[in-house]
Design a protein that fits this description.
9 strands; globular; 2 domains; four-stranded mixed sheet; alpha+beta
């Protein structure tokens, strides 16, 4: 113990190594989505609450005056204009939060950030988005991040976001952009599929369609919890008694009703998850 104390005393005289304790928007957004998803799978609301706190922190502290995102937060200060992955993962996280609590403010924030991306990251000569914003630092060349790696490419995540928001808001501008991005990368998927794994998810959604599951009624939580017991990768889930979303219009009911729709065509409503799964399987 005496030797350790002497060593500690000598070590304390040295210059301490730097501490990388910055908070990155993109990495936090990935964690927010993970917590939101797992909160439903494991029925563990504490994960959702933590995701909600983190998302609110980003929206309150890392939004630029013109409605964009900062990338970095350290020492109570937000710096560096956000890159495409910051937007892509944050939009994805906001959509995930909506599918937990059906609070449409999350979708509104996701839509706002998506419109910002469309305005500031677009390439007039390419279907992909630039990695850097047009109003950021001027560079010799602006690149596109397309190939998926350990972390999915920002463009592949953005394409999935556009597809989902196109369904939520019945906005073909989003859907057409997502399809154009996938079409652009399709030849590379055929040549080197393992480098485009997240794009392949988008391809499967295009081929097999995305199930739009709308749950309405005064007490929908039980049905939603039961639905969470089933792995349905190609789906979006909507719900709530009062909603402005197109798919939920004219679908009000006091009793719990579940609608399963694909490509703007809905099956007759059913009253339980077991019946709804027949339309999916």
């Amino acid at each position: 113990a005496l030797a350790k104390a002497k060593l500690l005393d000598e070590r304390s005289k040295r210059v301490r190594p730097g501490l990388d304790d910055k908070c990155l928007t993109a990495w936090n957004a990935m964690m927010i989505k993970a917590l939101a998803d797992v909160s439903q799978v494991l029925d563990y609301p504490e994960y959702y609450e933590r995701a909600k706190v983190a998302a609110e922190f980003i929206l309150n502290n890392l939004v630029t005056p013109d409605g964009g995102l900062y990338r970095n937060y350290k020492n109570s200060k937000a710096t560096i204009p956000g890159f495409l992955d910051d937007y892509a993962f944050m939009i994805e996280a906001l959509i995930a939060l909506y599918e937990v609590d059906f609070n449409e403010e999350w979708l509104a924030e996701a839509q706002s950030l998506t419109n910002y991306v469309l305005a500031n990251f677009k390439d007039e000569e390419n279907d992909m988005f630039f990695y850097t914003s047009s109003n950021g630092e001027e560079l010799i060349a602006r690149k596109h991040e397309v190939m998926d790696n350990v972390i999915p490419a920002s463009n592949s995540v953005m394409a999935q976001n556009l597809q989902k928001l196109g369904l939520f808001y019945d906005d073909e501008t989003y859907s057409d952009k997502a399809s154009a991005m996938l079409k652009s990368v399709l030849p590379r998927i055929k040549a080197y599929g393992s480098a485009y794994s997240n794009w392949c998810i988008q391809l499967l959604n295009e081929v097999y369609g995305v199930h739009e599951i709308a749950i309405v009624g005064n007490d929908i939580q039980e049905a939603k919890d039961e639905l969470n017991n089933y792995f349905i990768p190609n789906k979006i889930v909507l719900g709530g008694a009062k909603s402005e979303l197109p798919l939920l219009q004219n679908k009000k009911s006091q009793e719990t009703k579940i609608y399963v729709c694909v490509n703007k065509t809905c099956q007759l409503p059913v009253s339980n998850v077991a019946e709804a799964l027949k339309f999916i399987n």
